[in-house]
């Protein structure tokens, strides 16, 4: 994410924690009052932590781009969601690399990975696990399901029935599974990467609103540019590039990077901007269902990760704006009038981003 920084801006004017002892006095970027203060504390994460994050994220990005040609924005969102401890939904027509993207991210990390092929006959117990009677010990024994992994790849999630889809709800939100009144906690990091076909495709069940809301972001692959498709023919025609893809980090290092992301500063004005933007979806006449409070949390968490990936210790409104469509569009439902006018959720969210006033920066 590249954001131009005005030359006369200071860290406080942009919502950053200034260095200890630094005297700050400047007119902020969004026309607010002059700020003058002396900082007495430093950020929780040091420069070395952000250097490590940038270096590891770069390795993961390069590894994924060996497999996914010409989709740097989609790869960036996937890495952002990973570092923000969210879940990713990939929606598009068959054959554009949805499963390839999910498997590339999973294989780039040395951790446990399980793949679930969702089908109409898949049962909830296939996902969460089941208690079976063990004749040797004369008692029931829990057999963990496919969700017990660091990264769970759910392929064609909307091919399964709503009952089976709902089996993921508890694990995605609370990172635990309850079977027969016993709760089993999932290891960290934990991420669900699900792919789905458009709902008008044959044999699909639409994801319920409660499950869509648990995905931090939704991305669409789209068709590649001709040049990228030509490179794909050269690199993918002979063999599968996933076979040669090596892990470039591990689960423990990802956990350290998550801690670094959590230390990124979010000013009160940026928080208010996120709340105002999400609130606008609830008042819009073009939407019959607005975004939930969970979406506000996800938007700010994703913005923290985006700022850290940009080597910043503070969040800008630009981060909120750039992530608004992938984080919010899949949670809202356009009204009938918007459908008739040919306006989809992404276009409506983009319009709201343009209409909601930017915050007036101030020192927090």
Automatic annotation (TrEMBL):
Pfam families hit by this protein: AAA_3, AAA_lid_2
InterPro entries given in the database record: ATPase_AAA-3 (IPR011703), CbbQ/NirQ/NorQ/GpvN (IPR050764), ChlI/MoxR_AAA_lid (IPR041628), P-loop_NTPase (IPR027417)
The protein's name in its UniProt record: MoxR family ATPase
Residue ranges annotated for the ChlI/MoxR AAA lid domain, each copy included: 280-339
Region (Disordered): 1-47
Matching SUPFAM superfamilies: P-loop containing nucleoside triphosphate hydrolases
Lineage: Bacteria, Bacillati, Actinomycetota, Actinomycetes, Propionibacteriales
Domain ATPase AAA-3: 87-216
Bilayer-spanning residue ranges: none
